Amino acid sequence: MEALKISTCFPPFHFNLKTPRFSRIICEKKPNFSFSLNHQQPHKSRFNLFTTNIFNSTNEPQQLLPNYEQEISTKNEKNQEKEKFDWYAQWYPIMPLSELDKRRPHGKKVMGIDLVVWWDKILEEWRVMDDACSHRLAPLSQGRIDQWGRLQCVYHGWCFSGSGDCKFIPQAPRDKPHVHTSKRACVAVYPSFVQNDILWFWPNTDTLYKDIHLRKTPPYIPLLDDLTSYAKTTLVRDIPYGYEFLIENLMDPSHVNYAHHGIMKIGKIEVPNR
């Protein structure tokens, strides 16, 4: 094959496809980072010495560069550890008390966790538990509160107390050992706390956090409990998108006259002379 000729300021390079001129030995050589600017140059560059000192010399600045980068990396890792936020070690609001009915269980989803909220009339406290029966994982929020104040599963009637213990299994033989006392029959319970007329929960069922409210409480807002200064109305509505989209929408008043036209009582749209 006729060799390709390239006309540039450099001498012509010939590529012979039949007999490659780059052997494996040449490819495995350690690359040389020195810059040679003498190839067909009319004069020597005055920056040649500077580039040679950076890449080829064994001066102290070259040796300090890796250590400097490592020091920066170590500082960044330490800062990330300090700024690390544990999402499952915080209090989260579930629902205002005004929206909760003590006569039935409520199903809620917070932090991706399916919860059942119900009123324990024995201890007169709100309870927050996993919304899954320990028997066949049926949603306990679809169950009922029985006459003894226990949370009863709608599927097979298993009954649970506010501590998560199973108290009664209708299908269990009466003359046999009480299988309902097994730990495998229990339902996980989350720490809960009422503040500002809002029910909060801690998303960790470990017994270490059973009394977490004694060490850390939800953020308290005094104005929410001051009923003498103003009147308040609570409204809860579930919407099928994230809070970021909602906040971005609420912070954009210029859309109201158009997106809510005919829906809300708004002023007339001013049409400029153009």
Describe this structure as you would to a colleague:
Pfam families: Rieske. InterPro entries: Cholesterol_7-desaturase (IPR050584), Rieske_2Fe-2S (IPR017941), Rieske_2Fe-2S_sf (IPR036922). It is a single chain. The protein is an alpha+beta fold and 274 residues long. Among the domains are: 27-83, no CATH class; 94-222, Rieske Iron-sulfur Protein. It is 18% helix and 16% strand. It has 5 helices and 11 strands, in the order αααβββββββββββαα. Strands 2-3-4-9 form a 4-stranded antiparallel sheet, with no helix packed on it. Strands 5-6-7-8 form a 4-stranded antiparallel sheet, with no helix packed on it. Strands 1-11-10 form a 3-stranded antiparallel sheet, with no helix packed on it. The longest helix is centred in the N-terminal third of the chain and has 24 residues, at 60-83. The chain is extended. The model is unreliable at 1-8, 20-39 and 41-57 (pLDDT under 50).
Which structural traits does this protein have?
274 residues; alpha+beta; Rieske Iron-sulfur Protein; four-stranded antiparallel beta sheet; 5 helices; disordered N terminus
SSE string: HHHEEEEEEEEEEEHH
Shape: extended
What ranges have pLDDT less than 50 throughout 5 or more consecutive residues?
Answer: 1-8, 20-39, 41-57
Question: How is the CATH topology of the domain at 94-222 named?
Answer: Rieske Iron-sulfur Protein
Q: Using the CA coordinates, give the radius of gyration.
A: 36 Å
What assembly state would you assign to the polypeptide chains in this entry? single chain
Q: Gap between N and C termini, in Å?
A: 70 Å
Class per helix and strand makeup: alpha+beta
- Strand proportion, as a percent range, falls in 15-25%
Number of strands: 11
**The CATH C-level class name of the domain at 94-222:** Mainly Beta
Number of helices: 5
The level of helicity is 10-25%
Q: What composes the largest sheet?
A: 4 strands, antiparallel
Strand order of the largest sheet: 2-3-4-9
Average pLDDT for all residues: 79
Fourth-level CATH superfamily of the domain at 94-222: Rieske [2Fe-2S] iron-sulphur domain
In the CATH hierarchy, the architecture of the domain at 94-222 is 3-layer Sandwich
Protein name: Rieske domain-containing protein
GO molecular function: 2 iron, 2 sulfur cluster binding; metal ion binding; oxidoreductase activity
Keywords: 2Fe-2S, Iron, Iron-sulfur, Membrane, Metal-binding, Oxidoreductase, Transit peptide, Transmembrane, Transmembrane helix
Pfam families: Rieske
